[in-house]
Amino acid sequence: MLGGGNPVSSGTPSGTGQILQYVGGHVSGHSGVVSVNNVETTLIKSTIPSNSYIVVKVQGYFAAATGTTELLDDARFRIFVDDELLASFQYKANNEFFGPEFPKLLVVGGSTLKITCENVTDASIIPMGCLVTGEVYY
Q: What is the 3-state secondary structure (H, E, C) of the chain?
């Protein structure tokens, strides 16, 4: 079921923003394109419903065409659960459109998953994004 019929529904079944979406046994999130500078910026932040847990893959990406000036800066993605740092990966400019996938994460109900990004080269703005896909278990 979509929307309110799902016991762990977060509203609409698709779209961009910080909140994860739940459709049946699946969970996904897309930050959309976010302007990131040298200040750590939240791309995804969502609390997992207490009656479930999720197993997800996280994929960060440069949201610009290769060869553009936006890809001259390196970016760092970090994953937190309940404000505890779990992983940090740095993407090299103009070498990786999609960086390496993070390992699969199991996040228990009631926990908050947060994914951040920052430009670690300088203060210029770069367009970045993040995808989260996985399964939800009740």
A: CCHHHCCCCCCCCCCCCCCCEEECCEEEEECCCEEECCCCEEEEEEECCCCCEEEEEEEEEECCCCCCHHHHCCEEEEEEECCEEEEEEEECCCCCCECCCCCCEEEECCCEEEEEEEECCCCCCEEEEEEEEEEEEC
The phi, psi pair for 90, rounded to 5°, reads -110, 130
Cα 83 to the center of its chain, rounded Å: 15
- What's the average model confidence in pLDDT over 27-40? 95
Which backbone phi and psi does 70 adopt, to 5 degrees? Answer: -65, -25
CA 46, CA 19: separation in Å to the nearest integer? Answer: 5
Identify whether the C-beta of residue 77 lies closer than 8 Å to the C-beta of residue 63.
no
Average pLDDT over residues 57-67: 79
Q: Kindly calculate the radius of gyration of the chain based on its CA atoms and give it in whole angstroms.
A: 15
Global confidence as pTM: 0.84
What whole-number distance in Å separates Cα of residue 115 and Cα of residue 110?
17
Average pLDDT over residues 87-102: 74
**Contacts of residue 38, Cβ cutoff 8 Å, sequence gap at least 6:** 118, 119, 120, 122, 123
